[in-house]
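Hi support team,

I submitted a single chain yesterday and got back a structure, but I'm not sure I'm reading the token output correctly. Could someone confirm the output below corresponds to the sequence I sent? I've pasted both exactly as they appear in my results page.

Thanks,
R.
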Amino acid sequence: MQVVHDVRIAAGQALGQEVSLFLVVALHRHPVTGTQQGLERAADAPPWPRTCTRRAGDQQAHLRLVIKPGGDANLLSGILAAYAGRPGARQVDILFGGATDRADHVRDGRADVALLYAPFDDLTGLDHETLIVEGRVAILPPDHRLASRTEVALADLAQETLPRWKGVRWTGAPAAGQGPEVTDAAEVLQMIRLGRTIAILPRSLVQPMHPDLVYRPVADAPSSALVLAWSQDDRRRLVASFVAAAVEAAGAT
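Hi R., thanks for writing in. Yes, this is the structure output for that exact sequence:
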């Protein structure tokens, strides 16, 4: 296998570790007697599986975390500090996603880990650890008929106009889907100010509270959970160390 060794060195210098690993496998599949022919055969071989690319990427310099603005329940600073203190910690790049596309960032490899809200975000194909479980609050205009209550129930909201969250299949709210379509919290807050809708959101997503709106706990609304998610096929130490730090930091709050 001297040919394999020579190709691995040449390809590794020119194209990087992941391609060199691919060429080694390709040459095992197609034994040859010359380096040039080996490169031609390797170019025709099937693509390298994404799961293996992830594992080879354990040497990447940065870890990529995708969140939505304000979607960290004030945990992120503590998580980053806990991770920075762990052996072998890497720089963490913060990426911002929308209300519904952050899980896709992990599934297609744009991010290594994501902060998501269950059960609203789709966790198909992902593993996750729960960081916090929290209640939900109704957000109302100040002149709303329920604004004087200290808390409300889902039955109180049954006839209310609630927003349609683009890309969200289930919200746990009664009669959801009859109001304006929105994509993030900023849009829904604007619609509430205009009197077009009310909303039921996880408590951490309404911080800081806007003084011109009213926030009331919904006593019987399904709980939501902030979770840290990563691909089911990702077993890198890079990811495992960050997950452990996040769980540690969340437990300390």
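A quick pointer for reading it: Residues 1-56 have pLDDT under 50 and may be disordered. Let us know if anything else looks off.

Best,
Support desk
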